[in-house]
Design brief:
This protein has 326 residues and is of the alpha/beta class. The protein contains ten helices and 13 strands. Strand 6 (174-178), helix 6 and strand 7 form a beta-alpha-beta unit. The two termini are 31 Å apart. It binds adenosine-5'-triphosphate. It is found in: Cell membrane. This is ABC transporter. Residues 1-15 have a biased composition (Basic residues).
Length: 326
């Protein structure tokens, strides 16, 4: 079962100039977006929309067109054709009124190394009419104990947190996060995920690019998978997993001297590698039951028994692999 998290979030939003027409809650609407570089179709007739308060993840292999799309949406790259509406603006002509409404967290922003964290965040907050309190922002991204440290004294992961603080300075309604946790250690990544979830709960709409499928699965309400400039599919992580039609893997280990060589009568034949048994099941409930009955009847203690449905990563690999062979 999937839960569409954006329905759980109370999201106060007042109509302002540049907002989409009444009744339309999409914050991003892209239709037929196309961009070529010479012979390269970097973005080819891409259409999708992102709803108010939604976290939408763009996924795809290197060179699939993610950065090109995001930079067109941010207003930093020109498109060849197609229409783009972000917060009611065309990013190509929205100018500073548009920029004040969005937050951009780039993969590697260049910093003034001699500034302290607090100085940089204060400066950035000062650029926006609607802004965060700098000290609260520093706490929000988990740099509270680094306030007075110069940028040159920060680790790679701490710099990425500073990137995030700077992107949030204008309290944006829409945040672009480009590979937000690349280079993070596991604890920092979990901290960043909690932060993104908190931003979502505050009503921020987020467009995320990532190569970490677990990140997309955890954070994204919906994902769009790109391959060679084309949008291959859009859906919730659960929809993509279901669409992949990949089997659930039931696995367990045999005891050192099994009482019988007979295997459980699962819908797909068990595959045996040494003491490790795997069933690629289309009917995981019935097959799990078969395995458990089989073990109980023979007094076999099942060790390492797991039932693993396909992950978003499995679905993504199947989908983009198909694209490569198309
Ligand atoms: N300024 C440019 N000039 C020429 N070709 C470009 C330019 N920018 C991007 N491309 C090409 O457009 C295609 C899409 O690139 P893009 O950077 O959007 O991919 P991406 O999905 O963001 O990749 P990655 O995951 O590696 O960041 C690639 O084939 C790339 O080589």
């Amino acid at each position: 079962m999937h839960t569409h998290r954006r329905h759980n979030v109370a999201r106060p939003h007042r109509a302002r100039p540049g907002d989409p027409a009444c009744g339309n809650t999409d914050r991003i609407v892209v239709q037929g977006l196309t961009k070529t570089y010479g012979q390269v179709h970097a973005v080819d007739q891409v259409s999708f929309s992102v709803g108010d308060g939604e976290i939408f993840a763009l996924l795809g292999p290197n060179g699939a067109g993610k950065t090109t799309i995001v930079e067109i949406l941010e207003g930093y790259r020109a498109r060849d054709s197609g229409s783009v509406d972000v917060l009611g603006f065309d990013p190509a002509t929205g100018g500073s009124a548009y920029r004040a409404r969005i937050g951009v967290v780039l993969q590697s922003a260049g910093f003034e190394e001699e500034f302290t964290v607090r100085e940089l965040v204060r400066l950035q907050c000062g650029l926006f009419p609607r802004r965060h309190d700098p000290d609260e922002l520093i706490d929000l991204v988990g740099l509270g104990d680094k306030r007075t440290v110069r940028v040159k004294g920060l680790s790679g992961g701490q710099r990425r947190r500073l990137d995030l603080a700077l992107g949030l300075a204008g309290a944006p309604e829409l945040l672009f996060l480009d590979e937000p946790t690349t280079g993070f250690d596991p604890a920092a990544r979990h901290h960043a995920w909690e932060l993104v979830a908190r931003l979502r709960d505050l009503g921020t709409t987020i467009l995320l690019t990532t190569h970490y499928l677990e990140e997309a699965q955890r954070l994204a309400d919906r994902v769009g998978v790109l391959g060679a400039g084309q949008l291959l599919t859009v859906g919730t992580p659960d929809e993509l997993r279901a669409q992949s039609r990949l089997p659930t893997i039931i696995s367990f280990r045999l005891p050192p001297s099994p009482p019988s060589t007979e295997m459980p009568a699962t819908s797909a034949p068990p595959k045996i590698h040494g003491d490790h048994v795997r069933v690629l099941s289309r009917d995981p409930l019935a097959d799990s039951w078969q395995v458990i009955q089989w073990a109980r009847d023979r007094r076999i203690e099942l060790s390492d028994f797991t039932v693993a449905p396909p992950t978003l990563e499995d679905a993504y690999l199947a989908l983009t692999g198909e694209a490569d062979h198309a």
